[in-house]
Amino acid sequence: MQLDEAERRTRILDAASTVLTTHGYHATSMDSIASCSGMSKKTLYQFFDSKQVLFETLIIERLFAPIEYVPLSTDSMEKQLFGLMTSIAACIFCDERLSLLRSVVTETSRNPAVRQLVADLFQLSGRSLPIQNWLTTQSEAGRLDIPDVPEASDLLFGMTLGGPMLGQLTHCKPSRSQEKLEEFMAYGIRVFLEGHRPLPQT
Prior knowledge:
Helices cover about 70% and strands about 0% of the residues. The protein is mostly helical.
């Protein structure tokens, strides 16, 4: 069966994800990715100039993929934020992203070049993070008092998804059920919003 260009590119990224999460960045080669994808190395180079470019693409498109969620402005802030965090949770708790995160954490701890690369990619992706965009909108409208949006974004993530994600990554805690995760997120959101409501004018 003849694959079109998009299908071949997807197959290469799938293979790269599998090889990377199994063997790590240092041990991953274009040869091993080609073998896993069932394609020639020449085909890989038609899509990606190097292993680094392929790795960058994999991280941006699979790990830092955009969250497609637009809150309704007519909903309460709590409901908007809950919908946003639920959408993020659905993305980050999929098996492939968790495996990629484990690999990236391992590689950044032992490879300075990979650490810098991931830091650059993270900064690039942070420019369009949905949490930051939403918080900026609320702050500019005067609905929340947020002097530092990136810091508040980190805080919100930690209060809602950081703990559960760490438990999943390290296998140190049993996974929460969807119901328990939503209860935990709702609690964190209530505390976060209460701590950032503007003080009444005197």
